[in-house]
Amino acid sequence: MEILKGKVAIITGAASGIGKRIAEKFAESKANLVLTDINDDIKVRAEELAKNYSISAIGLKHNVSIEQQCKEVVEKTIEIFKKIDILINNAGITRDGLAIKMKEEDFDSVISVNLKGPFLMSKHSFVYMSKQRSGKIVNISSIVGQTGQAGQANYSASKAGLIGLTKSLAREFARRNINVNAIAPGFIATKMTEKLDEKAISTIIQQIPLQRLGTVDDVANLALFLSSDESSYITGQVIGVNGGLYM
Ligand code: NAD
Q: What is the pLDDT of residues 225-244, one digit of tens each?
């Protein structure tokens, strides 16, 4: 289905995991893409998608926690594609540890990438989305932003903050016809969850009503819907993709 045909989407953290799958799904749906990541592989990834799906795509090396770089990504998008229809704030990191032992730099870096990054990208994209009077912003939060998680004070605070950011921006941007929503994935099989040992994974699975980890597809399908015209009356929402783990 070509439901994003003619749309221009920026996806951060698109070199691996969930962001990589969202990029592929959007390419299948015929969006033109600006893929960003701190990982240099992003340029090759964009070239592959452009070739395989006959779309336009560029890959930009980008650190979402640096404002000047966010501004440049947005300006480059406008220079090449003349508009921004969709922004997927997906880049995220973990620096886990018990709060009592957590270093200040591990707290700051997680907040900087996971919360400040989406703020900066949304702020700079808004300049153009507001002139267009249309836009979709999707923030990838997490179930632990809703429930909290021992060993992840920094990460869960960043993801809870992202939910607050989503709702505030949804209110500010609504009059310009810009929808802002958050996806809160549960435990999704990616590099991020590979860090957990087998025992931890099987304990988690026992608690999930649907009895499995999520896939990157489960998240990408919702990102596609929230980025399409089909979701035009949905804004300020946090939608769980968690197998029923949090209701
Ligand atoms: P991942 O590590 O596979 O992918 C994250 C990508 O972000 C990587 O390509 C990485 O290079 C990039 N990145 C990191 N720091 C960056 C920065 N400063 N600027 C730009 N890019 C940067 O992880 P994932 O599991 O695909 O996670 C994607 C998003 O989903 C994250 O926001 C994560 O917090 C969230 N999430 C993941 C899970 C899960 O179970 N995997 C659950 C809930 C939420």
A: 999 999 999 999 999 999 99
